[in-house]
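Researcher: We plan to redesign the surface later, but first we want a full-length starting point. Tokens attached.
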């Protein structure tokens, strides 16, 4: 699924963030909340993660927030991507093909977000490990987990995605992490982070 003429996210951010750190992350560390008032979403991340400068908006959307782990080659991105047209909850629930619509949104997200991320990582292979629908009162929600084979080793890219009802954009909360040396505590930290995404209806 590799593709993409223009890189959507800065390679400098990706490569610098994925540099190795010696210490291990813990799943029980204190957290802090990021709140985006413009797009009405929040999530929680470990309090010791370091905020990063965000790259300029690209084809995959606008990076609203970026941070890296203080201990390991793991980072989080909050991305808003323009989509259209907007759909209401009533329209979605009336559609007999709504399951097919969600499948189409997953396929489009894989192509627009994950394939471009794979390109940014200089990966020569992208494997879709899991896709799963997620219940959300605010919009159409699902999660995706992928593995990318890069020159530095396997890298996991996982995200929670919400297409808010009545809004012409999608919200992505994405975690990128090297597979080598991962601990159960780190996996739990990433799960909690992705599960913490909350979107308020417009």
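Model: Full-length starting sequence:
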């Amino acid at each position: 699924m590799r593709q993409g003429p223009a890189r959507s996210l800065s390679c400098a951010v990706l490569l610098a963030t994925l540099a190795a750190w010696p210490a291990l992350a813990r799943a029980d560390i204190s957290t802090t909340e990021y709140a985006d008032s413009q797009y009405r979403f929040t999530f929680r991340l470990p309090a010791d993660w370091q905020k990063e400068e965000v790259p300029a908006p690209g084809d995959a959307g606008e990076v609203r927030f970026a941070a890296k782990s203080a201990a390991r080659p793991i980072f989080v991105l909050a991305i808003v991507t323009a989509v259209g047209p907007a759909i209401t909850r009533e329209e979605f629930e009336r559609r007999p093909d709504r399951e097919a619509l969600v499948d189409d949104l997953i396929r489009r997200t894989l192509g627009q977000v994950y394939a471009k991320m794979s390109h940014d990582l200089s990966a020569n292979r992208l494997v879709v490990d899991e896709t799963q629908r997620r219940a959300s009162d605010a919009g159409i929600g699902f999660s995706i987990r992928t593995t990318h084979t890069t020159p530095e080793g396997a890298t996991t890219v996982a995200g929670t995605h919400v297409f808010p009802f009545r809004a012409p954009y999608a919200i992505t909360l994405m975690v990128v992490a090297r597979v080598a040396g991962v601990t159960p505590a780190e996996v739990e930290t990433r799960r909690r982070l992705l599960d913490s995404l909350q979107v308020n209806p417009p």
